[in-house]
Amino acid sequence: MSISVDIEKNLGVFRLDVHFSAGNEVIALLGASGCGKSMTLKCIAGIERPDRGRIVVNDVTLFDSEKGINLTPQQRHTGLLFQNYALFPNMTVLQNIRAGARRERDAEKRASITEDIIKSFGLTELVKRYPHQLSGGQQQRVALARILVSDPGVLLLDEPFSALDSHLRFRLEQEVREIIRGFGKSVVLVSHDRDEVFRLSDKIAVMHNGAVEICGEKKEVFARPGTRNAATLTGCKNISPIRKLGQRRVLALDWNMELETAEDVGDAACVGIRMHDLRPEDGCNSFSCQVAEEIENPFSYTVMLKTAGSERTIGWETDKETWRQLRGRFDRICLPPEAIILLKG
After folding, report:
1. Which phi and psi (to 5°) does residue 204 adopt?
2. What whole-number distance in Å separates Cα of residue 97 and Cα of residue 147?
3. pLDDT tens, 161-198?
4. Bridge partners of residue 312, in order along the sequence
5. Which of 89, 84, 80 is nearest to 163 (CA)?
6. Distances from the Cα of 241 to the Cαs of 60, 64, 237, 261, 269, in angstroms?
7. Per-residue pLDDT tens for 59-112?
8. Which of 73, 241, 248, 329 has a beta carbon 3.0–4.6 Å from 46's, enabling a disulfide?
């Protein structure tokens, strides 16, 4: 099972230019609001028509501008879960799920697969209720059941947890993880939440201004995001523009630090380091510093540090016990070369 997307669409002041592919795995489109993630899903599902390009799912061409192929949404057989779940308000849970099985012509088989998926989703006690009588989590399960009962060729999830309260998200995320792992085909997940993306996906495509900046295995994308935007989206909060001093040496302008890097600087315009990668010790790239601010989190401290002549602070996150031991006698920080991320602008 696979999906290949290579499309362009002009939307006036905004241009969508997206290229990615995935196999039997979960690929996440990670990006800020307005970057084109949801529009990409709509193009795959056939709700929107690209101006140019090609979309292929499981060796079936859904769209090809050169060959004049543009299958209808019904012909594409994709399963798109909208942010608001789009349940039929005048139908019960049973009727909503049964509507998803309408492609099955055999009435007896249609009833059987509907009953099976209702049981597997734990919805038996809710079959007579209407959408307005369900919680957000229950609505999500009904919407997924309605999609999966039709056995779609690809599953498209558009911000599946955005409508849920934060305390519900983690539990429902676990349920969705089990569902998509058991789906056995390509899944495209749209999200702006880096933690959600890391937990659910196998592969990540980082989007910015309508285009895919970087696409790869999730751990590799987090380790080497490549661009300032991708680093920010994957949670890197310490980023500074640089002046190149040598093949593996830079001046981080915001922090006034001369840093040695583990890799050649090349055409990098910035460096980044994740807050948990700083070390309170001497070593390569070690600097005297002062504590500008300490911020208490539920289970850690974020300590904002400033070096002599620096324009901006650099953040270090550490567990509470470590900071309690160091507070008042801490004056030096180390940025290990292997932890420094080289970034294009």
Report:
1. -130, 135
2. 8
3. 876 677 777 778 888 888 888 898 999 999 999 999 99
4. none
5. 84
6. 46, 42, 13, 14, 6
7. 999 999 999 999 999 999 999 998 888 899 999 999 999 998 887 777 888 889
8. 73
**The total number of residues written for the chain in this structure:** 345
